[in-house]
Specification:
The protein is α/β, with parallel strands linked by helices. The chain contains eight helices and ten strands. Helix 6 links the parallel strand 5 and strand 6. The strands form two sheets. An eight-stranded mixed beta sheet has the order 1-10-9-4-5-6-2-3. It is globular. The longest helix has 12 residues. InterPro entries: PRX5-like, Redoxin, Thioredoxin-like_sf, Thioredoxin_domain. This is Glutaredoxin-dependent peroxiredoxin. Its main location: mitochondrion. GO terms for molecular function: thioredoxin peroxidase activity.
């Protein structure tokens, strides 16, 4: 099984590059790296109200499971909608054949925007969508980036990871949010 930290090339101006590397790497425990962090499952407003605005602890997502998780700058944005999510959606059967329990998409968005976007992409049946409404998850992993120059504010780098029982086996981070070289489904499939 391959373990890797792969980086693409930069195209955004230096002010938007963010950190050189993430805080986490292959071998790290993703839950321990983001203690006390919970994500918000994509849902409608009414579902949010009826669930008492529940959140999902990271341990529930990763413990005892094989998970592919990918982060992206935001719902409804260009590369995210046209390339990143579709790459996972069209390869979902290949992930399942490799024993992956779930494929998760996470972005610094509220769960209601994530829900509407997942429905628009017709991807909700294949991929689990979660919001990181305050960016705490991405900040904990040092995968956050300030995209104010693009009028997006604090967001996530574009990245992907393969995680077994909470342990990161492979992590791929693009050098710029406009890049789509190392974080797509095809790359992570080869690392499982």
């Amino acid at each position: 099984m391959a373990s890797a930290l792969v980086r693409g090339a930069r195209r955004f101006p230096p002010a938007m590059w963010g950190r050189g590397f993430a805080k986490v790497a292959s071998g790290d425990d993703i839950v321990a790296a983001a203690p006390d962090v919970a994500l918000q499952k994509a849902r409608s407003w009414d579902e949010g109200v009826s669930s008492n605005f529940s959140t999902t602890p990271l341990n529930d997502l990763f413990q005892g499971k094989k998970v592919v998780i990918f982060g992206l700058p935001g719902a409804y944005t260009g590369v995210c909608s046209a390339q990143h999510v579709p790459s996972y959606q069209k390869n979902i059967d290949k992930f399942k054949a490799k024993g992956v329990n779930s494929v998760i998409c996470v972005a610094v968005n509220d769960p209601y925007s994530m829900n509407a976007w997942a429905e628009k992409l017709q991807a909700k049946d294949a991929i689990e969508f979660y919001g990181d409404f305050d960016g705490k998850f991405h900040k904990s992993l040092e995968l956050d980036i300030d995209l104010s120059a693009a009028l997006l504010g604090p967001r996530s780098h574009r990245w992907s990871a393969y995680v077994e029982d909470g342990k990161i086996k492979a992590l791929n981070v693009e050098k710029a949010p406009s890049e789509f070289k190392v974080s797509g489904a095809e790359v992570i499939l080869d690392q499982i």
